[in-house]
Write a structure and sequence with these properties.
single chain, mainly alpha, hpI Integrase, Chain A, three-stranded antiparallel beta sheet, 10 helices, about 50% helix, about 5% strand, globular, DNA integration
């Protein structure tokens, strides 16, 4: 498969750091559950379907990780843990009541945090993108995933760790995040100049 961070017309498919910040700022003005979905997508690089499948019992506040079930794998039981910030954990607690769900004797911990269909989640993300002024082929949940990958490499995260966080089977798939241009490429190159 020919993976690329650019569409056939040469437009990028990832959000820049400034667009990611604008996206979260716009999400803060939305319903709290829309904000937390946007925050999870931006801060973990997960797929929209993986976020929407998330339940309280897959958020480990002790280790500061979210455990995603890899829905793209052809077999069941494939999971990956992605470290998350204390801010994200506290927002998930504030909006969704993680501790209450995790302590519920009636199986509340296995209830999805966002009981939406994929199209509803997609619409929510597109609405926030529009408010943020982000338009184009990158104004999607996948654009956030790609933006996460670019940002991770830009900040020096080892590619093998990024591969694990994104749930890629092959390192060659993760390597596309090094295929950036413009400001991102210059920031990466600047590390060589110092």
């Amino acid at each position: 498969m020919d993976w690329s961070l650019f569409d056939p017309t040469g437009h990028r498919k990832y959000l820049t750091a400034a667009e990611r910040r604008a996206f979260i700022k716009a999400a803060m003005g939305q319903a709290p559950e829309v904000y937390t979905l946007c925050l999870v997508l931006k801060d973990t690089g997960c797929r929209l379907s993986e976020a929407l499948a998330l339940t309280a019992d897959h958020i480990d506040t002790r280790t500061g990780t979210i455990v995603f079930r890899s829905l793209k794998k052809r077999r069941l039981g494939v999971h990956r843990a992605v470290p998350v910030s204390p801010t994200l954990l506290s927002e998930l607690e504030r909006v969704h009541g993680l501790r209450r769900l995790q302590d519920a004797p009636d199986g509340g911990a296995s209830v999805r945090l966002w009981p939406w269909h994929r199209m509803t989640g997609h619409r929510r993300v597109k609405e926030v993108m529009a408010v943020a002024g982000v338009h184009g082929p990158h104004a999607t949940a996948k654009g956030l995933r790609h933006g996460f990958g670019v940002a991770a490499l830009e900040r020096g995260i080892p590619i093998t760790l990024l591969q694990k966080w994104l749930g890629h089977a092959k390192l060659a798939t993760t390597a596309i995040y090094g295929d950036v241009v413009g400001a991102e490429e210059r920031r990466m190159a600047r590390k060589l100049w110092d």
